[in-house]
Every structure is written in C-alpha cells, then in structure tokens.
Amino acid sequence: MSDRAVLDDDEQAAWRSFVEMRHLLDRHLVRHLQRESGLSDSDFEILVNLSESPEGRMRAFELGQATLWEKSRLSHHLSRMEKRGLVRREASDSRYPDVVLTDGGLSAIEKAAPANAARVREFFVDVLGPERLAVLREAADDVIAAIEAHLKDDCPPEVRGD
C-alpha cells in the first residue's frame, strides 16, 4: 500500500473528529426537528429546496439533482409527503412532473426553519465564530470542487449514479 493510502495519526485524528462532529450535529438537529415539527430531515430537505425555488416548484429531476437522491428514493418519499399534504406532483411539459410546495408544506417549513436555524447558530456558527467559519467554508468549497472534478473525470459510472 502506498503512503497516500494510509492516514498518519494527525490525519486520522482530524478525520475522526470531523466524522464524529458531523454525525453528532446532524443527529442532534434531526432529533429536535422531528420532535418540534414532526418533519424528518428528508422532509425538511425537500421543503427547503422547494421553498427556495421560484414559485415553490421544481421538476422532479431537478429536485433529485439538488438532493443527490436516487429516482426511486425521491419518488417514494414524495409519495409519503403528498399523503401528508406537504407537496403535490403536477404534470409538466417535460418527461418529469413538477413537484409543488403546498400551503401545508409552506406552513411546515415556515414553522420549522427558525428553530432549526437557531440550533445551527448555537451549535455551529457561534461555536466556530466568523474567522473559523470563513476558513471552514473555503475548505468545504475546496473539497466539493475536488469531488466534482473526480465525478467528472475518473469516477466509475456506478459510483456516480449514472
């Protein structure tokens, strides 16, 4: 195995800390979201994307790209959200239906978002402060760019989800 395939102690410790932080923060936020609003993190992700899109609608294909979900997962989850009155699917002029935010979905995201944002501020933004937040954003952008380049250039299609 090459030296590049093995993490040294400092690299391993940094990676483990990052993974633990990400899991703990995500799970903590999700538990509060579910308890306070009855929304799952998947519901919230769909509602955020729709609420930020023009006219509260997106093509299902575009929503799948935004969430990085497989077609079947998105379809099943949208069906569950439709039954709860959070979204509806409408035929469009393309092959894919439009997913539309309902009044119930808009109300749900408007109620859930402020408490979620306050927790993100409490456990992430305020803990890091402006300087470290800027460094983290730059580092995250670099990691995202490296992954996007890998996906474009030499990632196997079955990993890319093609």
Automatic annotation (TrEMBL):
Domain of life per record? Bacteria
Per its UniProt record, what InterPro entries does this chain match?
HTH_MarR-typ (IPR000835), MarR/SlyA-like (IPR039422), WH-like_DNA-bd_sf (IPR036388), WH_DNA-bd_sf (IPR036390)
Which biological process annotations from GO are given for this protein? response to stress
Q: Where is the HTH marR-type domain?
A: 32-132
Q: Mind listing the GO molecular function terms for this protein? A: DNA-binding transcription factor activity
State what protein this is by name. MarR family transcriptional regulator
The scientific name of the source species is Mycolicibacterium hodleri
High-level lineage: Bacteria, Bacillati, Actinomycetota, Actinomycetes, Mycobacteriales
